[in-house]
Design goal:
Layout lengths: L1 E8 L4 E4 L6 E5 L18 E5 L7 E6 L5 E5 L6 E6 L3 E7 L7 H13 L3 E7 L6 H14 L2 E4 L8 H8 L3 E5 L6 H8 L25 E4 L5 E4 L24 H4 L16 H7 L5 H15 L1
Parallel strand pairs: 3-5, 8-9, 8-11, 9-10, 11-13
Antiparallel strand pairs: 1-2, 1-4, 2-3, 4-5, 6-7, 12-13
Length: 300
């Protein structure tokens, strides 16, 4: 048997990097992982053991090593989890300042998903050239104040690229964000040899086409790698109970200790420490609004 890493997947085939140059095409046997949801059996980033039986070119995945982290979303049928990427360390949440419109809720959902899976979130504000200085400073100050690293980039002005390159160097990272925010354009300017297809944002709606059909892993200098995920239209924490959500909002931790009720949702109960912190300006309205929207989605 040989050991390798999944670098690309389709519905039924998987491409495994065995350190030989080009990835090798593999499949999994029908009885392997039969107790797991189909969409979660093998993901990009998985470390696997494979076997090839000449003269067949296609190999068989016989074992998946334990995952250290998971980036998971609800599958299309909404009943099962879909693991998009495994074993990554950093989730780089890409948000455009404009085109498409900037939304706190998307960032906050992705932060929760990343933290739930064991990844460290980093927030990247792209297309910074389209925003006024104050428009860029307000969310930057907000998330840095909570404790997250924030990077500002512009492909047009070629700004922020060295900081992003330094973040990626030697690390195992995932780029994640809605379509049209510029993930593929960032990759193209940093690593033009990868020949990533870049799609234009639809001018009328301000939304983007999905230019990355499947999650793809690309090797980086220093033994790191980068995964570019498909544009995520709907990404919510999977298997998270509504009452657990507050633990993924860092600024809620201390105020929640003064809540009258131990199981406080921080939405409707009286004598809520989080709502008091909101009134006192210790928690922003944008983050609290995101919390309420995610909480309601988890409750439905």
């Amino acid at each position: 048997m040989q050991s390798g890493t999944i670098v690309r997947r389709t519905r039924s085939h998987y491409y495994v990097d065995l350190g030989e140059g080009s990835p090798r095409l593999c499949r999994i046997r029908s009885n392997l992982f039969h107790q797991e949801p189909r969409e979660s059996r093998i993901a990009v980033g998985d470390e696997v053991r494979v076997e090839f039986q000449p003269p067949h070119e296609t190999g068989w995945i016989l074992e998946r090593l334990p995952r250290r982290t998971e980036l998971t979303r609800r599958a299309a049928d909404r009943s099962e989890a879909q693991v998009l990427v495994s074993n990554a360390e950093t989730l780089i949440i890409v948000s455009a300042m404009k085109r498409p419109a900037f939304r706190y809720g998307v960032i906050d959902r992705l932060i929760a998903v990343g933290l739930q899976g064991g990844l460290t979130p980093v927030i990247l504000f792209n297309k910074s050239d389209l925003a006024e200085a104050e428009e860029l400073e307000i969310p930057t100050r907000l998330y840095r104040g909570i404790g997250y690293r924030v990077i500002q980039t512009s492909v047009v002005q070629n700004s922020g690229m060295e900081e992003l390159r330094e973040l990626l160097s030697g690390a195992k990272s995932v780029l994640c964000g809605h379509s049209g925010v510029g993930k593929s354009s960032l990759i193209q300017i940093l690593f033009p040899e990868w020949s990533i297809k870049v799609g234009e944002v639809k001018r009328k709606s301000g939304t983007g086409r999905h230019t990355t059909i499947l999650a793809n892993m690309y090797p980086l200098p220093g033994e790191g790698w980068l995964v570019d995920t498909p544009g995520v239209r709907e990404l919510m924490p999977f298997g998270m109970k509504p009452q657990e959500l507050g633990s993924y909002f860092e600024e809620f931790t201390e105020p929640s200790e003064t809540c009258r009720f131990k199981s406080c949702s921080h939405l409707r109960e009286p004598d809520c420490g989080v709502k008091q912190a909101l009134e006192d300006g210790q928690i922003t309205e944008e983050r609290y609004r995101s919390y309420g929207m995610i909480y309601d989605s988890l409750s439905s």
